[in-house]
Write a structure and sequence with these properties.
mainly alpha
């Protein structure tokens, strides 16, 4: 089997090529999902709102829903959990510095501040750095646990997301039925009770949010094509929701559960490429087979019900079966990537992906900067101007820029710019950045 560990220069923790490759896949893949929120109003969850949901646009939605929805974020979270063990040395019972706890929590505090800046200054409301920093605060005590218990607790945390989805679907279904009954009574000339009137108002609120009319959609487009202050004012409520209500109602458990699974997989030797080829082949076949089967059923139901509000809540993003599909599919992708890694195939491609993985923080934040410039009004102002399919041409351009740029940058520098800044802040000391160029004997270095 190929060697999987390469020593980093200086006092940096050891790097694992397989994990860098997986992280590169995750940071590039997550743009496939985030780009929709940057470019199209209310179209991430429901393609019928804007951007087209027929023909090739429906195909684009279907492909991302089947193969990528939740899996790239899940892969990111797995690897973040694994990085805790790599940082502290607890995956190999290595000797860690006596002040490791101090360094670790400083690392999380700075990541927390990066998340605040990413969301509030760079205006990416879907930032995960804030979530990861908060969830990461709870990971350090878990680093000594056995892989089996990490796996069990991680699965239980993810299972807490199911009641949340059930409550949303039941509430929407009940409200829809009550509102329809109230409308029928109203059309028959009957006076409505307070409860019936409340059902009508509640359903109208749900419709305004889930199926906004053209006036509301155009208002959002105009706001996000305005200047920086206009964009900030429009996105502020969503940023607040993501960093409060959405986080505490599910996002925290989502992130922490997947992180614990990542710690378990590293301790079990799965993420390092140390298991057998047969193991990875089975993990890939089982995870991808189960995950895609559930996702196919979800997509078919969405199309059959023409993306109705209740159908989207039940079968779509964060629906009843969302985690039952995306978790095994994420694990299946881990198996597939590491099986290919062990075969020694696509080594040049793996090299590019690993470079992206080593600069994942820089690439993740730079994606937000590039997309904000392209789509918001203080840049090119393309928000709401492209169809869903056309948006993915922007993804390809950003991918090309980041794949080539990462490889070039790491030829001359040891860290990505934000990775270097993060490390310097944690140690409160400027870290060496440039690589030493080793020359031939007798030549000038």
């Amino acid at each position: 089997m190929r060697g999987v560990i390469s020593a980093a220069a200086g006092n940096a923790p050891q790097r694992i090529q397989a994990i860098d490759t997986l992280r590169g896949i995750a940071v590039l893949g997550i743009l496939l999902l985030n780009i929709v929120s940057f470019s199209l109003p209310r179209a991430y969850i429901d393609p019928s709102v804007y951007g087209g949901y027929q023909g090739w646009n429906l195909t684009a939605f279907g492909m991302t829903h089947l193969f990528f929805e939740g899996t790239m974020r899940g892969l990111f979270s797995l690897l973040f959990g694994a990085s805790v063990l790599l940082l502290t040395g607890d995956w190999r019972r290595s000797t860690a510095p006596q002040n490791m706890a101090d360094l670790y929590y400083r690392r999380m505090v700075w990541l927390f501040l990066f998340g605040i800046i990413h969301a509030w200054l760079l205006l990416w409301f879907g930032d995960v750095l804030y979530w990861y920093a908060l969830a990461g605060m709870f990971l350090y005590p878990a680093r000594k646990m056995r892989a089996r218990w990490l796996m069990v607790i991680g699965v239980l945390l993810l299972a807490t997301l199911i009641p949340r989805s059930i409550i949303k679907v039941v509430d929407a279904s009940t409200t829809e039925r009550e509102a329809q009954a109230a409308e029928l009574r109203l059309s028959s000339g009957h006076e409505l009770s307070q409860k019936e009137q409340g059902a009508l108002e509640h359903w109208a609120d749900i419709q305004r949010w889930r199926k906004p009319d053209r006036i509301e959609v155009q208002r959002q487009i105009d706001a996000l094509r305005g200047d920086y202050l206009s964009v900030f004012a429009e996105l502020k409520p969503t940023i607040i929701a993501y960093q409060s209500t959405i986080l505490y109602r599910g996002g925290f458990f989502d992130a922490l559960g997947m992180m614990l699974l990542g710690m378990a997989l590293l301790k079990a030797g799965v993420l390092t490429g140390e298991r057998s080829q047969r193991f990875y082949a089975r993990l890939a076949a089982g995870g991808i087979g189960l995950g895609l089967s559930i996702n196919v059923l979800e997509l078919a139901a969405l199309i059959r019900h023409e993306f109705s509000i209740v159908a989207v809540l039940k079968w779509g993003f964060l629906g009843l079966y969302y985690d039952l599909g995306r978790v095994p599919l994420t694990l299946g992708y881990v198996g597939l990537a590491l099986w290919v890694y062990q075969q020694g195939w696509l080594q040049k491609t793996q090299g590019y992906l690993a470079s992206c993985g080593k600069m994942a923080l820089t690439l993740y934040v730079s994606q937000s900067i590039i997309c904000a410039f392209i789509f918001y009004g203080f840049g090119l102002g393309w928000y709401g101007q492209l169809s869903r399919v056309e948006v993915y041409s922007v993804v390809l351009l950003i991918w090309a820029l980041q794949l080539i740029g990462s490889q070039w940058w790491l030829r001359y520098y040891r860290f990505g710019p934000l990775e270097w800044l993060w490390r310097s802040l944690v140690y409160w000391q400027r870290q060496p950045m440039r690589r030493r160029l080793v020359s031939a004997p007798g030549a000038t270095s």
